[in-house]
Task: structure prediction
Amino acid sequence: MDPDDGAVGCLMSILKILFIALEVLMLFNLLIFVHELGHFLAARWRGLKVERFAIWFGKPIWKKTINGVEYVMGSIPAGGYVSLPQMASMETIEGKTETAVEELPPVSVLDKIIVAFAGPLFSFLLALAFAVVVMVVGRPVGEAEATTTIGYVEKDGPADKAGLKVGDRILEVDGHKVSKFGGMGDSVTWRIVRSTGETIPVKVDRDGKELVMTAAPAKEQTKFWQRKSLRQIRISPAQSSLIAEVSPNSPAEVAGLKPGDEILEVNGKKLHHFAAVSEVIEENPGTELVMLIQRPGTAAFQVKIKPEKPVSPPDEKPRLGILWNASGKTKLVHPGAIEQVVSSVSAMTETFGALFARDTDIKPQHLGGAVKIMDVYYRLFASESGWRLALWFSVLMNVNLAVLNMLPIPVLDGGHIVLAIIEGIRRRPLSARILNSIQTGCAVLLIGFMIYIAFYDVQELPWKRSKEKPAAVKFAPRDSNRN
Result:
């Protein structure tokens, strides 16, 4: 390969990463900006003093004063705020105000509630706006969201030991009906993760008969500094076995397989999931396989292919040299706007319900913070039709932002509303000293929790995942003496 071609390819990869990062930054900023804009506009409407409108925290990287309001862009991408001296003190996060509260006119309880509620309201309205856009442009949906049929059962895994088989259509998990394999809510994966008993009953439809199997869930071992793994019974959904890439000099390349090809059968047996191919190779060592291939635009055809050991890694088992499309086929759906918002709210309630349930494996460490959110956005934008997925994910994020901020915790908007209600009941505001102590204590706890979550989030960033990837599989170059 020409060295110049390699340099150009490297430069293009860097530019792509920077462009995706810029997209993520802009969209993440939009979510924060709209939320804080709600507070800002409500404060202006109700006549409150606005000292500062800041997006992100930390040392300012940009600031400008316009009409008495200081607009700031911070250096820590973890939120934002509107500095309102007449509201409850937020000096721990926002810094000291320039105007003494005593010098400003008092604010009514209703005004405080309106200003505090405006942020979550704007986030919710933005979620609805994103949902309308998604309803129009559509959202890619993988096969896992459209089926509950098992496509692969790991050998000697919990499901295999329980008697579950490929082709079983799962009806219920742990007593809950399921309508899809992956995702939140009524999905197979979520109900397994959400279960609390020592065993998980799974009701399936097998050839028209309803059967109930009981699986003992397993969890992967993790290091003490990593997020604890969640329950699984090691099954995968039925999906198309699509080829994403073919390794150079591999048996697959020699057989003429190409990206986009779908493997329908192996040795006359219908394929329900690409993971089964590896098992067929292990069960038939050194044997030539007969595959039925479907290529777009052509009739199905057969190929014969014999797995080979790659030269790198040297101890690798015989392989075909195929990288699979993990999501299988996708289709574009147009869910209703209200349906999307309701689904997002349901996902939030399901998460909180699992978090506070007794004996559940889901702990605070499994939540994601700002680092995780930006990482998810990055991966969505990097995927095919990523912008559609990013819009859909933004519905969930804005609903999350609205709901979380309405929690009755000082520092959050819900906490401001609670403090305003207490002030209305007492008919006088709490003392500045008490307010400052409450806000400072809660701010320290909140920041500490954010750091705690970020500790786990950074371990799952792209650079970390790339280090954990298995070594690239390489095959020896073909010559005239090799078929």
